[in-house]
Design brief:
The chain is mostly helical. Helices cover 74% and strands 0% of the residues. The chain starts with a helix and ends with a helix. Pfam families: DUF7010 (PF22765).
Length: 186
Amino acid sequence: MKKECINRWQTDLSISSGNGLDFIFAGVVVWGLSTRIWSLDFTPYTKAVLVLFATGLLFPLAWLFSRLLKTNWKNSSNPLQPLALWFNVAQLFYMPMLALVLLRLPECFITAFAIITGGHFFPFAWLYRTKWYAIFAGVIPAGALLITITAADDHLYAIPLFVCMSLVLLAVCLYADLNRKHNGNQ
């Protein structure tokens, strides 16, 4: 299989799926809601459980955004398309670690969740042929860790706020990348 063929499939998938912007926009909403949850006067455990419930909105919101953006989740003519699902499913293997943090160190839950969220972006840099996913795969975990180390316990809402703002910036970068690809500048 020639590299040019794979590159063409990657670019085609990037364009047809809108660089995954539907999921990024859904993530902005979920992490915005998580910011609100972590600003409430509840125990860290309760906040963590509420955030887990909030993540149930991700797929329905992504579906809604895909309709608004007219992106395609299923491109059966592209052999790379199933990788997007596999890359997303891969983060489920981190859920036992997240459950452990929830049960033993609930105050660290939002940090662990932010690190998993950011880190799972890395393979999408290859899949969609864009550096932005790789950059934010490093920025989000590093930023979440730095905030955890430096913020007071009652200011940990800064972690989901940071992730939310990072996702907004990522969306802007991915949109610019998508426009570049639409214009044939790959």
